[in-house]
Specification:
Strand content: 35-45%
Radius of gyration: 23 Å
Number of strands: 27
Shape: globular
């Protein structure tokens, strides 16, 4: 009886489905035909990052002279070594260990290599742990398994319910659009001047790397929050740095200081693509305008784009939005 009711409900909304698909077609392509990039744990664990818990003095040596005052904020340092209750955070730079958190473990998330010729269905990632609904617009169903965050899914068909899209990701499995980030390759826009380039979709929070007109790699990012939105447009990387220090918002509540930010690629003034060790919120806006990537992803993109850095300007970066936030 339950299957009959589900069938009737699907028939009632079938006119809004983007493309009818059979169960056999779903079983033939149960997951995206992409190649998962392995997390680079050598790079992930290369530095010992810790958060600074409060305002702190920086000394030139253990029990030495204060050379700098670090205001309270969103602050992270990389620790070189410990000496008694002191932590070395740079050349002639030391902090008291009671000002520091435990070790921060960066995300092991990594993107995917895309097949030549494209994918048979739009693919994406789950953004939360969730059981799919049996029908579009329905509640999560205990009959369905939990789809964990960062699980890769195919989108077989789409239904509009009350202004929201619902994606079919399996047989009797439907997910609301807010819980999935999609991989949507774009045509090369006017102004992209390099063979290797990337697009950043602010709506989906997805970066795609291209060689010529072919999409070769895709991953989740975290761009600027609404009050510090990432600018749209076509840019070129003007300064690549394997490691750098970042700080901003001095004197404000949102002050931040970040040591040893990895694989940084500045493309819009002080806005950059870069690796991120201080959060695991990829797929959601999180930054002061930069495009945050996992450490594994940022290294891959950095190496992929590096052949374009021999000219007057580096690889092109196309920032756009495929939709509007509600």
């Amino acid at each position: 009886m339950k299957r009959l009711l589900i069938g009737i409900m699907l028939m009632l909304i079938s006119s809004t489905i983007s493309a009818q698909i059979s169960d056999d077609q779903i079983y033939a392509y149960p997951e995206p035909g992409v190649t998962q990039l392995e997390a680079n744990y050598g790079l992930i664990g290369e530095y010992a990052y810790r958060r600074v818990l409060e305002a702190a003095e920086i000394y030139d040596a253990p029990n030495g002279t204060v050379i700098e005052m670090l205001d309270a904020g969103y602050n992270y340092v990389s620790v070189w070594q410990f000496q008694d209750d002191w932590a070395q955070i740079g050349t002639d730079r030391w902090m008291k260990t009671d000002k520091l958190s435990g070790v921060v473990y960066p995300s092991g998330f990594a993107g995917v290599l895309l097949p030549e010729g494209g994918l048979p269905y739009t693919a994406g990632w789950m953004l939360v742990n969730l059981r799919a609904s049996l029908t579009p617009g329905g509640a999560p169903a205990e009959e369905n398994p939990v789809l964990n965050r960062y699980t890769k899914v195919n989108i077989y068909s789409v239904v509009d319910i009350d202004g929201w899209r619902w994606y079919q990701v399996g047989v009797n499995q439907w997910i609301k659009q807010t819980n999935i980030a999609k991989i949507l390759p774009v045509a090369r826009p006017e102004g992209v001047t390099t063979n290797r380039w990337v697009s950043v979709d602010l709506y989906e929070q997805v970066l795609i790397a291209y060689e010529g007109d072919r999409a070769v790699y895709a991953t989740l990012v975290s761009s600027g929050m609404p009050q510090w939105s990432t600018n749209e447009g076509v840019f070129n990387i003007w300064l690549p740095l394997s490691r750098t220090e970042m700080s901003g918002a001095e004197g404000r509540d949102d002050f931040y200081y970040l040591e040893d930010v990895p694989w940084t690629m500045y493309f819009d003034g002080a806005i950059a693509l870069h690796g991120t060790y201080w959060h695991n919120s990829f797929g959601f806006r999180h930054s002061h305008g930069c495009v945050n990537l996992s450490i594994t992803d940022s290294n891959w993109i950095y190496e992929f784009l590096s052949p374009e850095w021999t000219g007057e300007s580096g690889a092109s970066v196309y920032v756009y939005s495929s939709g509007e936030y509600q």
